[in-house]
Amino acid sequence: AKDLGRNRYCFYTGDMHAQAMAKLELEAALSRAIEREELLLHYQPKVAAQTGEVVGAEALLRWQRGASGLVPPGQFIPLAEQSSLILDIGAWVIDRACRQLRQWLDAGQPVVRVAVNVAARQFAAGDLDTVVAAALQRHGIDAELLELELTEGMLMSNPQQGTAMLQRLRGLGVKISLDDFGTGYSSLAYLHQFPIDTLKIDQSFVRRIGEVPDGEALVDAVIGLAHRLHLRVVAEGVETPAQRAHLLRQGCDEMQGYHFGRPAPAESLQAMLSQPRG
Ligand code: C2E
Ligand code: CA
Ligand code: CA
Ligand code: CA
Fold first, then answer.
1. The overall pTM is greater than 0.90
2. Distance, CA 60 to ligand 1 centroid (Å)?
3. Where does the record place the EAL domain (predicted)?
4. Interface ipTM > 0.85
C-alpha cells in the first residue's frame, strides 16, 4: 500500500498497526535511553594468536531497557540507524570507551586498545574525526588506544570521501579495522588504497573451518591477502580449539570469540588483564 497516491486511504491490518506502534514505542524509549543511563558497553577480549595474551577488546553496545533486561544491539541499532539517533548513540559509545580507558589508567590498571563499532550513517556524517578527537581530548586518551571498526560498504558507497575521512582519523593516530570482511560489497582494487590497519575475518567464514569441504579456503585466502597488503588479521567468532589451531597455523595475528571470552562488563575484561594467564 506504500505507493498509493496521497489522496487515497492506506488501510492497515490490525497486525501492521501493532507492529508500527511497537516500533514507535521502541524508538521513543531508545531516544531516552542515553539520558536515562540505560546504555552500557560490554567488552570482549581479542587475544594474540601466538601467546593467547589479551591484546585488545571490542566494545559492544547493550541496552538495559527498564526491567525487560539486556537488549542486544541487533534489536535496536538498525532502528537507531534509520534516524539521527545513531549519531548521538555513536558519539556516546566513543565517549564511554574513552572514559573507561581513563578510569583504568587512573586506577593504575593495565589497559589494552579498545575497538568501537561505527555505523554507516555515523561515518557518512563527515564529522567522525571531530567526534573522536573531542572524546580523546576530553578524557586525555592516547589515540593509539582507540580503534574504529568499519565495514567495506561504508567505504565503498563513497570511496573518495571515505578515504579522506580515514586519512583524517589515522592522522589523529587512531587505528582502523575493516569489520565483517568478505561479507560485503568489497573491491580488492580499493582495499589496496584504503588506509587501514586490520582486516577482521567475519565469523561466518571462521565457522566453516573443519565443517564443510574446503571450508578453510576463504579464511586462508583472506589471511594471505591481508599479509601481502601488510595488514594485520583478526578472526572473529572463534569458538573451538580446532578453529583456533587452524587459524594459528595460517598465521592469523589475533583472535576473538567465545573460545577466549564472551562480551562482558568492563570488570570482567579488567580481571582477565590483571590476572597472570594460567
Ligand atoms: P560485530 O561488530 O560483527 O560484533 C560481533 C558480534 O559477534 C557481537 O554480537 C558478539 O557478541 C558476537 N560474537 C563474538 N564472539 C562470538 C562467537 O564466538 N560466536 C558467536 N556466535 N558470536 C560471537 P553483538 O554484541 O550482538 O553485536 C552485534 C552487532 O551489533 C555487531 O556485530 C555490530 O555490528 C553491532 N554493534 C554492536 N555494538 C555497536 C555499537 O556500539 N555501534 C554500532 N554502530 N554497532 C554496534
Ligand atoms: Ca565489530
Ligand atoms: Ca564483525
Ligand atoms: Ca557482524
1. yes
2. 6
3. 23-277
4. yes
